[in-house]
Amino acid sequence: MKAGPPPHVAMLATPGMGHLIPLAELAKRLASRHGATATLITFASTASATQRALLASLPPAVSSLSLPPVDLSDLPRGAAIETRMSEECARSLPALTRLLSELGETMATATGTRLVAFVADQFGMDSFDAARDAGVRTRCLFIPMNLHALSLVLDLPDLAASVPGEFRDLAEPVRLPGCVPIPGSDVPSPLQDRSNPSFSVMVHLAKRYREADAILVNSFDAVEPEVAEVLRQPESGRPPVYPIGPLIRQFVGSEADGAGALPPSPRAACLEWLDRQPARSVIFVSFGSGGALPKEEMHELALGLELSGQRFLWVVRSPSDEGTLSDNYYNAESKKDPFVYLPEGFLERTKDVGLLVPSWAPQTQVLAHRATGGFLTHCGWNSTLESLVHGVPMVAWPLFAEQRLNAVMLAEGVGAAIRLPERKDKETIAAVVRELMAGEGKGAMVRVKVAELQKAAAEGLRDGGAATAALDEVVEKWEADEAN
Asked: Facing residues of 215 across strands?
C-alpha cells in the first residue's frame, strides 16, 4: 500500500451467508495485507443470529452497517430467491445512496480515509446506480461462485436470445470456451423456466455485469484451469477477471463459521465425537445453510448411510416438503424436530457409527478434523471451497441455484467429486459413499486429485501466489484510479 491515508472499501452483501462469508473474508484480507478498512453493508431481511455472530467476530478494521427494511409483501409467497434478492436491492437504492454518501464524507472528515471502491455481489448489480450517485468512482463485481458460473452468466443474454425453448429440453449440452460441457438440465435453476420472473431477473443482472470495473471471483486456477486461462485473456467490452480465492471462513475458538452459529455444547459434542474416530474414517453429510431434502430422499439417505457401513456425521434438517425453498434460504433452522422423519429404529441401529445433529454443525472445524475423510455435499461453492482447502473429497448431491453446474465441473471436469445419479436409492447411495471413502477405482482418483487441489489452493494464497498477486493488482488499480 502506498503512503498516505488508508483506502476504504464499501461492500454490499445480498441475502445469504454464502454471499456474506466470502465478502467478509475479502475485507479481512484487504485489511491484513493492504492496510485497508472496509464496511460490510447488509440487508434487514437477513439480520439473523448467525449473521450477527459473524459480523461481531470481524476485526476492528472491518465494520458493518445494515440497510433499513423495505416492504416485499407484494411479492408472491413462492417468489424465487433470486427475485426476492434483486427486488430488495432495487428498493433499497435510495437508502444505499445516502449511506454511501455519508460514509464517504465521514471517512474523509474523521480519518482522512478515502472511499476508493464499492464492491457488490452478483445479485446486487443494481446497487452500482447508488454507488455512482454517491460519487464512488470504482465499482467492482464480486462473484462468490466459480469461473464456470461466471462464464455462463456473461454469455446469458446471447444464450437467452439464441436457445429455443427451455434449457432443460436441449438435446446437446451448453458449450462455453474453456468450460466442461453443461447439460441443459444442469444449467442453474433460476434459468430453467422462462416464464418465472427469476429468468428475466438473471438476464437483467447479466447484462449489467459488463458495467463493472473489475470482476473478482472466489475461485482459483487449479480447480478450473481451462476457463481460467480463457478469462485471463482481455476481451473487448468485458471487465478484467481476477480469481482471488479460495476465500473461506476461518474459525477461531467457538465463533460462528460457514455452517452457522452453534452453542458451545453441540459444537463440542461434534468435535469430541470426531476425536474418538479413526483418521479419515468419517463422511460428513450436510446440505448447506439453505438446503433440505424431500422426505423420500431423506429416508433413502439414512438407509444408504446405514447400508454403507461407514462412519458418518449428518446435519439433519426437516424435509423440504414442509415449506418453500425461500423459507429455508432465509431461515434454515428446522422448525420441527428433524429426527422424527428418520426411518424407524435408524438412530438406535447406527448409534455406534453415526452422529446426527439437528440443523447446524461447525462445518469448517469438521472438515478440518483429521477424522473426516469425505463430504456428502450439495455443492454450494462455499462448502466446496472449504472441502478443497481441507483436502476432503466429495460426493455431489446438488439441490438448487448453480449447484448442479458445480457438480458437473467437480465430477466431470476436475475430478474432485463423485456425483450421485438422479435416482437416489439406498443401494446407490451406499455404493457411492463406500467408493469415495475406501474405493480403489474412482474413489482413489478423487482422493488423490483433492490432495493436489488442497496444495494448489494453499500455494495460490502465499506471498507471490496467483490469488495474492491478483488481489494486489486490484488494489493497485484502486489506488491509481483514486490518485488520478
From this structure: 141, 241
Decide if 254 is inside a domain: no
Q: Give the SS3 label for residue 318.
A: coil
Gap between the Cα atoms of 231 and 246, Å rounded? 17
User: Mean pLDDT throughout 455-464?
Assistant: 97
* For residues 151-169, average pLDDT: 96
The number of folded domains in the chain is: 2
Mean pLDDT for 55-59 is 94
Identity of the residue numbered 87: E
> How far is residue 455 CA from its own chain's centroid?
21
pLDDT at 267: 79
Residues 214 and 278 in one domain: no
Whichever domain contains 165, its CATH number is 3.40.50.2000
* Alpha-carbon gap, residue 325 to 81, rounded angstroms: 8
Percent of the chain clearing pLDDT 70 (strictly above): 93
Q: What's residue 459's pLDDT?
A: 98
- Regarding whether 218 and 286 lie in a shared domain, the answer is no
**How crowded is residue 344: how many other Cβ atoms within 10 Å of its Cβ?**
7
Write down the pLDDT at residue 333: 53
> What share of residues in the chain are helix, strand, coil (percent, to 5)?
50, 15, 35
Q: Is residue 182 part of a domain?
A: yes
Three-state SS for 150?
helix
The answer for 110, left when phi > 0, alpha when psi is -120 to 50, beta otherwise, is alpha
**CA pair distance 237, 456, nearest whole angstrom:** 31
What cell does 248 get? 473461506
Q: Are residues 100 and 41 in the same domain?
A: yes
Q: Are 131 and 101 contained in the same domain?
A: yes
What's the CA gap between 307 and 225, in Å, rounded? 37
How long is the chain? 484
Host domain of residue 148? 8-247+463-481
398 and 437 inside one domain: yes
Residues 104 and 209 in one domain: yes
pLDDT band at 162 (very low <50, low <70, confident <90, very high): very high
Higher pLDDT, 368 or 323: 368
Q: Do 226 and 317 belong to one domain?
A: no
- Are 448 and 471 members of one domain? no
Q: Please answer whether residues 214 and 240 qualify as being in contact, where contact means their C-beta atoms are separated by less than 8 angstroms.
A: yes
> How far, in Å, CA of 383 to CA of 380, rounded?
5
**In the prediction, which pLDDT does 253 show?**
40
Give residue 262's pLDDT: 47
* pLDDT higher than threshold 90 for residue 268: no
